[in-house]
Amino acid sequence: MAEERSLEPSVAPTLAPAVEIRPATVADLDELVEVYLSAAAHHAAIDPDVYLVPTAANAAIRWQHRVESRGPDAECVVSVVDGRVVGSASIEVVPSAGVGSMIRPLRIAEIGIGILDGYRGLGIGQRLIAELERWAADHGIDRIVLLVAEANVGALRLYRRLGYAGDSVVLRKEVAAR
Question: If exposure means fewest CB atoms within 10 Å of the residue's CB, which of 17, 48, 66, 127 is most exposed?
Fold first, then answer.
């Protein structure tokens, strides 16, 4: 946890205006993979029971699909600083609970965000989330959800500051294969 706090320099106001947020393209794929692997390493260090660092090849497949899926039910954006992609964020509509479900029939979308090591804590995540929230409002999304590890103190602080609140609890139990 102390490492997370040390990644939050006091230079946020000077960097934020130089950040460009734009839709991701297939041309960004190599940099998207770099950001994703950096974020995966960050998450795996925080909560290795949940997160791992995938291979670059598998990450490339994942991000190519995300970029090519941009449309009415999904968006993928990047943050660019000095011509370099340093962050990415995606949003995707979650399938409805279906007929007969006790869950309210809301149009829900899940977001994911990753920031390249060395650029966390500089206001980039806030800018990426704001862009996804604009997209969500324009596409009739009723609620945005996300999954964040309790140990990811910096991310939790950001999400709470932006108005995200606990909605439910995810419990887990490891079960040996039978």
Answer: 17
